[in-house]
Amino acid sequence: MRNFFSVSNRLTNIYCLSNHPIMKKKILPILILLICANYSFAQLNMSLVGSLSYDVELSNIWGYSAPDGAEYALVGTYDGVSIVSLADPSNPVESTLVPGPLSNWREIKTWSHYAYATNETGSGLLVIDLANLPNSVDYHYWAPSIPGLGTLATIHSLFIDDLGYLYLNGSNLNGGGILFADLNTDPYNPIYVGKGPAIYAHDSFGRDNLAYSFEIYNGNFTIYDVTDKSNPVALGSQQTDGHFTHNGWLSDDSNILFTTDEVSDAPVGSYDVSDPANIITLDQFRPLETLGSGVIPHNVHVWDDYLIISYYTDGCIIVDGSRPDNLVEIANFDTYIPTSTGFAGAWGAYPFLPSGLILVSDIGNGLYILQPNYVRACYLEGKVTDAVTTTGLNGATIEIVGELANTLSNLVGNYKTGLATAGTYEVLIKKAGYQPKTISIDLANGELTLLDVALEPLPSFVFGGTVVEEGTGLPIVDAKVQLINADFEYNLTTDSDGKFSVQQFYNGDYDVFAGKWGYKAGVLSAEQIDQSSGNLTLEIARGYEDIFSLDLGWLINGDAPQGKWERGTPVEVSLLRYLIQFSLALTQLKTLVTQATLLEMLLTYSMDFNFQALPG
């Protein structure tokens, strides 16, 4: 979920749409009026123009601009392709539904006045002639029998390149590897011309006889020379951060590829692909407002070096990609209110209509027509150094105060960040062991502001102590010691004399933990430590305890891909629950305990019991 105002706007998006399915729910009319009266249909640099609900779930979306200038949304639905007139974008109307096999997956692309749609159920590729819109459409299914491969039946996705070649991805043929078809001779009846390697391609992109195959199960994209469609040649490959490469799109100059991985918290990647044999990672974008919450990126498209990204449960986000090594969010509109994550919400976002409108297909909430306000980001870049040694500082935090814009400096001290909105801001630069600095700067759209900062190191001193056994005072060898506060964390092990030391220690209040297997943990909270504190003696008693603040050497094994163990709080078990369970057991044993006796016991022990807190 985004901040309070964005959340309110999300509510507005739902409650103010009279044709939205959620209106079928019982919502107090007064609440609807209050929300609609106080908030507009807008989030950051993007506003709602219109919407259309469906009684089936949606998949991907595309757009079509007819020769007469009329614009249409081509919406993948569970039962076909819905063609929606945008003559009045505030009141979209379905012109026709082209039926198809029932399928949760439907991808659509256009070439000339034809639309092509895939599905994962059967019948092959749907080909629609849009020339007679808005009156009628002609369509048929193209399911060729390809020598040596078989009959085309199911297809996951498709792409059409600038030269009029159709790429079919994830089909039932060729191990899901790309199939190529020529649309130039007869777009209504494609001609099969070749295939790529039998490596499953979830999606693809093509331009200037280079094909970019997003090989999701290999976790990478591969660039092929497809001048000869019957003999593609691999030029280079690159693993993506989420190792589940879903889709990608080239920058306008074809030098940068932007990719998505369809896994929780994965970034949108930015790669220099100008030399396919030497692909360079430039940047990774994650929406800061839902960082770490499990949001999944789905599809990315590029228009005028803006990235238009559909996120499950996070809607449509626009990122300025004109500086591909510093990706900055400049607009967003969320179509999905619940705070849950997963495969719900926005499937696709189409940005290429001449009107500039963006079409979003929300799986459960329908079609959204959005008006973006494209602005260039305000860029802030620079270097953080040690004021004494002048060396770059790794891991310094650069925060634009009051904004969700923060980053860390890299190994040599360089950082890059930015904002969508121009103005005067306070920038806080800090790193543990250094005096923080706050600097006022002016940021402007489309401009780069350079800010180099030298941080003064804080004074430090040598600090140490001893861990001994309670009662005997004997030193404890190999005891674990942790000293931690908001800025510093020290994890130490005692030597043969039970001693530990830190050569570079900083003043502050620390929580101190000491322990070893066979001893109970020792804990000091908010212990003030400075140069006058002297050595610290920690006494721990014999026993068995692990509070999991220290690494006591547990070995973990198992075949779970993640989460082999978990620390948690046991579920509360009340005396009342025990009595109920006990009574049931007695009943089963046919004891002589009467219901009246049991009731008296329950009333006696529940006098101070909070029934609302009874665990479920």
Descriptive account of the structure:
This protein has four helices and 46 strands. By secondary structure, the protein is mainly β. The strands form twelve sheets. Strands 1-2-31-30-29 form a five-stranded antiparallel beta sheet, with helices on one face. Strand 17 (203-207) and strand 18 (210-215) form a beta hairpin. 37% of the residues are buried. Mean pLDDT is 88; it is low at 1-41, 589-593 and 605-616.
Count, helices: 4
Shape: elongated
The counted number of beta strands is 46
Please state roughly what percent of the residues sit in beta strands, choosing from under 5%, 5-15%, 15-25%, 25-35%, 35-45% or over 45%: 35-45%
| Amino-to-carboxy terminus distance | 27 Å
Largest sheet: 5 strands, antiparallel
Fraction in helix: under 10%
Based on secondary structure, the structural category is mainly beta
How are the strands ordered across the major sheet? 1-2-31-30-29
